[in-house]
Amino acid sequence: MALEGSKVRDVIELKIPSAPEYIRLARLTLAGIGSQLQLSFDEIEDLKIAVAEACTNALLYGSQNNRQEEIIIRYLIEDNKLTISVLDNGSGFDCSEIAVPNPEDLTPGGLGLFLIKALVDEVNILGCPERGTEVTMVKYLSEGRANV
């Protein structure tokens, strides 16, 4: 579904303190972008949930609720896709260590990355001890929607 030679149209970057009350700003920004791109209500809601999950993980595991740390949310609008990256300054982690949750033994927490993967078209997670973690989520756009 990916088109070669996708052209970047706009980059919006949001830096928020690592505090739960600021995650709504990432969701509101995404709602505005999604509306501009003429995404459906359901598509916008799915993306808002995915971004909130990624921000919550950055807050809990990246900055460990340290309000002095920043979470960066980058929205990249291209001709054929919307790419959203959530970055933290934590110690990073190895994605291969994430176990598939057992549906018979669900406990609070631990489902965020699986939920994100279910709600977006592509997910890439880069963890590096020196730079923290970057969760990149891609939503492909129908032809012509990015040209609004």
Report on the structure:
The chain is an alpha+beta fold and 148 residues long. The chain has one domain (8-98, 108-147): Histidine kinase-like ATPase, C-terminal domain (Heat Shock Protein 90, 2-Layer Sandwich). The chain is built from three helices and five strands. A five-stranded antiparallel beta sheet has the order 1-2-3-5-4, with helices on one face. Helix 1 (23-36) packs antiparallel against helix 2 (41-62) and helix 2 (41-62) runs antiparallel to helix 3. It is globular, with a radius of gyration of 15 Å.
Secondary-structure-derived class: alpha+beta
Give the H and E element order.
EHHEEHEE
Q: Helical region count?
A: 3
- Give the overall shape: globular
Strand content: 25-35%
Question: What are the low-pLDDT stretches, counting only 5+ consecutive residues below 50?
Answer: none
So what's the CATH class? Alpha Beta
Q: Count all strands and give the number.
A: 5
**Mean residue pLDDT:** 85
Rounded Rg:
15 Å
User: Helical content, roughly?
Assistant: 25-40%
Number of domains: 1
Features:
single chain; 148 residues; alpha+beta; Heat Shock Protein 90; 5-stranded antiparallel sheet; 5 strands
Offer a concise description of the structure.
The protein has helices at residues 23-36, 41-62, 112-119, and strands at 8-17, 70-78, 81-87, 122-128, 132-140. The chain is an alpha+beta fold and 148 residues long.
